[in-house]
UniProtKB/TrEMBL annotation:
MF GO annotations: transferase activity, transferring alkyl or aryl (other than methyl) groups
Identification of the protein by name: Bacteriochlorophyll/chlorophyll a synthase
Key words of the record: Chlorophyll biosynthesis, Membrane, Transmembrane, Transmembrane helix
One Pfam family linked to the record: UbiA
Record Gene3D superfamilies: UbiA prenyltransferase
Coiled-coil positions: none
Cellular location(s): Membrane
Organism per entry: Heliomicrobium undosum
Bilayer-crossing regions: 59-77, 109-127, 133-152, 159-176, 256-272, 284-306
Domain of life of the source: Bacteria
GO cellular component labels: membrane
Length: 307
């Protein structure tokens, strides 16, 4: 199904477009598929770290189903409700997006996404998984709601908002992956929470692209509160500190080789930082795609080491 966007409300600063747009394409865009990668990877870390997981087809299929619940359903819901409440901000930051070109229809589609994806996530997790995973899914949906929606709207403050994102991107999916194979341990849980500190820094990297819109709409992101220079320092310190803490913790558990691997992955990120500091607003996506790849690999290495 397609609609003519010229019949919808338009941003006064955006010229009309003659190209019809698919309703289903907008629904998919609302869920931001690229953002599913983070929590899906965290589920994978939980599975890799689970002593009860093996290389069987059953392990693969159960893991895949949990990844679908956590990624497209839970995170897709979170992205949709965030776009609903942030349509005005996003219209400033990204004037070519549908939220700027036809905001009324955009918001209706976002609310439909929220309802359908929430119901699907709860139904599948209740039917297919143990109660602990259902409760983690419920917690993820609630955190996604209070992150975006008033009166709490955690994203109004960078410390609270980025913490909420870090928990839903890293900690909850990781622990859910452990629970999938009855393999939750204190060590895996501690590491999942420590990596959320680094994920907080990761989220700050994403704040650089939206600083103008955040300021205009009164959102106190880390970059708005501390400036571009302060924001990049906080982000890098949190990313580095989390990995150092995990490396030290794993060494304290007697896993010296694993700790050395994590140390090497941390050191590999250092050469990228001087370039990032020269122009964080422009180079944050580059840093996420290069240096932060080592951070992501360190998550999996830590999970495997503690298996």
């Amino acid at each position: 199904m397609s609609v003519d966007i010229n019949r919808q409300s338009q941003s006064p600063t955006t010229a009309p477009s003659q190209e019809p747009i698919s309703i289903w394409r907008v629904r998919l865009q609302l869920t931001k598929p690229l953002t599913w990668i983070g929590p899906v990877w965290s589920v994978g870390c939980g599975v890799v770290g689970a002593a009860g997981a093996d290389l069987s087809v059953d392990t693969f299929l159960r893991s895949l189903l949990l990844m679908v619940v956590i990624g497209p359903l839970v995170l897709g819901m979170g992205q949709s409700i965030n776009d609903y409440y942030d349509a005005d901000v996003d219209a400033i930051n990204e004037p070519d997006r549908p939220c700027a070109r036809f905001p009324e229809l955009f918001k209706r589609l976002a609310l439909t996404n929220v309802a359908v994806l929430s119901a699907a996530a709860l139904a599948v997790s209740y039917i297919a998984f143990r109660i602990e995973i259902f409760l983690l899914v419920l917690a993820g949906l609630l955190i996604a709601y209070i992150y975006s929606a008033p009166p709490l709207r955690l994203k109004q403050n960078g410390w609270f908002g980025n913490t909420a994102c870090a928990l839903t991107y890293v900690t909850l999916p990781w622990i859910a992956g452990n629970y999938l194979f009855d393999s939750v341990t204190t060590e895996q849980t501690i590491v999942a929470f420590i990596y959320a500190i680094g994920s907080h820094g990761f989220m700050t990297m994403n704040d650089f692209k939206s600083v103008e819109g955040d300021k205009a709409c009164g959102l106190r992101s880390m970059v708005v509160m501390y400036g571009v220079e302060g924001g990049v320092k906080i982000a890098l310190n949190m990313l580095m500190a989390s990995q150092l803490l995990v490396a030290l913790y794993i060494a304290a558990q007697g896993h010296y080789i694993g700790s050395a691997v994590l140390g090497a992955l941390l050191l590999a990120q250092l050469p990228f930082q001087p370039k990032l500091k020269r122009d964080p607003k422009r180079l944050a996506p580059w840093y996420n795609a290069t240096a932060n790849s080592f951070f992501i690999l360190s998550m999996m290495a830590a999970a495997f080491t503690l298996k």
